[in-house]
Design brief:
The complex is a heterodimer of chains A (424) and B (225).
Chain A: E1 2-4, E2 6-7, E3 10-13, E4 20-23, E5 31-33, E6 40-44, E7 47-50, E8 70-73, E9 76-88, E10 94-102, E11 106-113, E12 116-122, E13 133-136, E14 139-158, E15 168-175, E16 178-184, E17 189-197, H1 199-206, H2 229-253, E18 257-266, E19 275-276, E20 280-282, E21 287-296, E22 300-310, E23 316-330, E24 333-337, E25 341-349, E26 352-362, E27 369-377, H3 382-410
Antiparallel strand pairs in A: 3-4, 5-6, 5-14, 6-7, 8-9, 9-10, 9-14, 10-11, 11-12, 12-17, 13-14, 14-15, 15-16, 16-17, 18-27, 19-26, 20-26, 21-25, 21-27, 22-23, 22-26, 23-24
Helix pairs in contact in A: 2-3
Chain B: E1 5-8, E2 15-18, E3 24-27, E4 34-40, E5 43-49, E6 59-61, E7 69-72, E8 75-87, E9 91-99, E10 104-110, E11 113-117, E12 122-125, E13 137-140, E14 143-151, E15 153-163, E16 171-179, E17 185-191, E18 195-200, E19 202-204, E20 210-211, E21 220-221
Antiparallel strand pairs in B: 1-2, 3-4, 3-15, 4-5, 7-8, 7-20, 8-9, 8-15, 9-10, 10-11, 11-19, 12-18, 13-14, 14-16, 16-17, 17-18
């Protein structure tokens, strides 16, 4: 018996198809599957012994990372020693699983489904199975899948012999880009932690020209090239808090000072005839001015062109406002429409002495209309704050919508999806 | 590390140094005959044992080799025995070490995980398992262990010398156990006729044992392509 540090490939011959291929591990392997026909052999110290089990012929092009390839994971070099094409019992879901071996570190596994890759490492210790979620290292994992898996065909070498074991029962819990997988066969219970890998990572690790492109959303594919959900949720809360703080501070600092208020009775004779008000003083420099009219009209309208004139500089700020109110009863139902109050806000008005030039117009109905005009300086404008909020919310809203559909796509293949797909 | 005694093989006259306390199992390095050696007062007796034999060209990827010497925990150690256990699904290696203080310990390797067993086994009634099965927890030595795997022995291959233990009773099954919270590994061997043997281990890094014969403790695999 020899034990040694260096194992050179040796040739073995398939007992079924007589294909000669190389073995990497010598007697460290317990199960060897022919690279050509997939025939399983127990690697007994006395030689290869064929295992009489119906197996499928390997599909060469399915093996993207060739047996014998070396790659670095977790700062250790691993060699690809085996390949399994696996299948979920009772479905048409197939995926590929590569076994990678390092003599001092043992095995890790690469799993590939629809171009989505993950690397799995066996966990030491105990984990308790849970019905819907579990917590591992302070991270909550949600149940994604529970199924029985079958091996469709084997290629290469394995340091365990699971050919005669009953079908594996698998449970997968996810917290992208990680997953915790439980595997339970008839004599062994194992836990694995999986981490998502990009196809490019696989290609770079093994020196491949390229790895097949991805289809759909992977089980633990992260919502790529974007902030994480936690980060974005936190950012949204922080932004909303800051926004509220600014709104409160700005609101409290606004003087909201009435600088002019006067009422006029507009008769038909005053229609389309300009008149001016008394002068008034604006003391707040470069603040907004809110001009508001309140028209006491009924089934009528009142229009006013209002021009704010700086008596000293001659600067003018002109605006048109209209109030109207109509009501009645139609087919026994009362109705009302229009608004007697209208306002506008003029930004950045310099301080000084002003007067208003008013050019009114009204319905020719022989009924005088009362026109109340009020001017306020340094008014807090909530709508501006809302516009800022809406603009700033565009990116988070797009993020959450995109993420919603991304997650919905991820869970499409799960029996435990929290999403509804009835209308899709 | 002086040997206690020496053993002259009755078949080939090869002299083997004995490092373990009796009773023990010894494979003669000259003719590969396996003996169980026992000691009754100062009288030694040797009985031939039939154990399967590994072909001479059998190769394992391994850092350790019988007769290797090295350092572990700042003490000189020597590998005096090697067992290759093979079940229907798994295989693992066990190397028996003796250090310069005369202490014996063993290191097991399965799929790249190395576990050191250095404490005395605890024996329980063979009914200790009750109706517990895979994935369930069992209380042993005041600690809770999860049953992580169940093996049935097929064969053991021996090189050098091994403590005999209960190898004269056939094994019913072996359970791999994982201690709750710590993840420490243990095993419970259920024998057919006698007892259940509980052994506590601890995970170690293979390169924490430094065989003097190795320049690097990392086995290499020559790539196929």
């Amino acid at each position: 018996m020899k034990t040694g540090l260096s194992i050179s490939p040796s040739n073995v011959t398939c007992k079924s198809c007589q294909h000669e291929f190389k073995t990497l591990l010598g007697h460290t392997a317990l199960l060897i599957a022919c690279h050509k026909c997939g025939q399983l052999h127990a690697n007994d110290p006395d030689g290869l012994k064929p295992i009489h089990q119906k197996v499928k012929r390997p599909v060469a092009k399915a093996i993207i990372v060739p047996i014998g390839s070396k790659g670095t994971f977790f700062n250790e070099t691993y060699t690809v020693i085996g390949f399994k094409c696996k299948k979920e019992e009772g479905t048409s879901f197939f995926w590929n699983e590569y076994t990678l071996y390092n003599p001092l570190k043992g095995c890790i596994y690469l799993s590939e489904f629809n171009g989505h890759w993950m690397v799995l490492q066996e966990l030491q210790g105990t984990l308790k199975d849970s019905s819907s979620s579990l917590t591992y290292e302070s991270e909550q994992y949600e149940l994604f899948a529970s199924y029985k898996s079958l091996t469709h065909y084997w290629v290469g070498e394995f340091i365990y012999d699971d050919s005669s074991l009953k079908r594996e029962w698998v449970k997968e819990y996810i917290a992208p880009p990680y997953a915790i997988c439980f595997e339970n066969d008839s004599c062994n219970l194992s836990f694995y932690k999986a981490e998502y890998l990009l196809p490019k990572t696989i290609a770079d690790t093994f020196g491949l020209q390229e790895a097949p492109s991805r289809a759909g959303v992977g089980m633990i594919e992260p919502f790529a090239d974007s902030p994480t959900l936690k980060w974005m949720t936190r950012l949204s809360f922080i932004f909303t808090f800051i926004w509220l703080l600014i709104v409160i501070v700005t609101g409290n600092h606004s003087k909201d000072q009435v600088i002019f208020s006067s009422a006029y009775s507009i008769e038909d004779s005053m229609r389309q005839k300009e008149f001016t008000t008394q002068t008034f003083t604006i003391t707040n420099a470069n603040r907004n001015v809110k001009i508001e009219i309140d028209c006491d009209v009924s089934n009528a309208w009142l229009y006013a062109n209002l021009t704010l004139v700086n008596q000293t500089t001659g600067d003018i700020y002109s605006t048109d406002l209209e109030g109207e109110y109509y009501s009645g009863v139609t087919e026994g139902e009362s109705w009302a429409e229009g608004n007697r109050v209208a306002y506008t806000i003029i930004p950045n008005v310099e301080k000084g002495v002003y007067y208003l030039s008013i050019y009114p117009d009204k319905a020719d109905n022989k009924i005088p209309a009362k026109l109340q005009i009020t001017l306020r300086s340094d008014v807090f404008i909530l709508s501006n704050a809302f516009i800022v909020f809406l603009l700033a919310a565009i990116y988070p809203v797009i993020f959450f919508i995109r993420r919603y559909y991304f997650e919905k796509g991820r869970w499409e293949n799960s029996d435990y999806s929290p999403y509804s797909y009835h209308n899709d | 590390m002086k040997s206690h005694y020496s053993f002259n093989c009755p078949d080939c006259q090869q002299v083997s140094e004995i490092f373990l306390d009796a009773p023990l199992i010894l494979r003669c390095g000259g003719c590969n005959t396996v003996f169980t050696l026992s000691q009754n007062e100062k009288e030694w007796s040797a009985v031939r044992v039939t154990l399967p034999r590994l072909p001479e060209d059998t190769t394992f990827i391994s850092s350790f080799h019988v007769h290797f010497t090295g350092i572990y925990n700042d003490l000189s150690v020597k590998i005096v025995g090697h067992a290759y256990w093979k079940t229907e699904h798994y295989a693992w290696h066990e190397w028996v070490f003796i250090n310069e203080a005369g202490d014996e310990f063993s290191v097991c390797e399965q799929t790249g995980d190395y576990t050191l067993f250095d404490s005395d086994p605890i024996f329980y009634s063979k009914e200790v398992l009750g109706n517990k099965s895979l994935g369930q927890f069992i209380m042993l030595d005041s600690k809770n262990y999860m049953i992580a795997a169940i093996h049935t022995f097929e064969r053991v291959y021996v090189q050098g010398q091994l403590p005999k233990g209960l190898y004269n009773d056939s094994v019913h099954m072996v359970l791999d156990l994982t201690e709750e919270h710590t993840g420490n590994i243990a095993s419970l061997t259920l024998y057919n006729k006698t007892l259940a043997c509980f052994e506590r281990g601890k995970s170690i890094a293979a390169d924490s044992i430094k065989p003097a014969q190795l320049k690097s403790n990392t086995p290499q695999i020559t790539p196929l392509f």
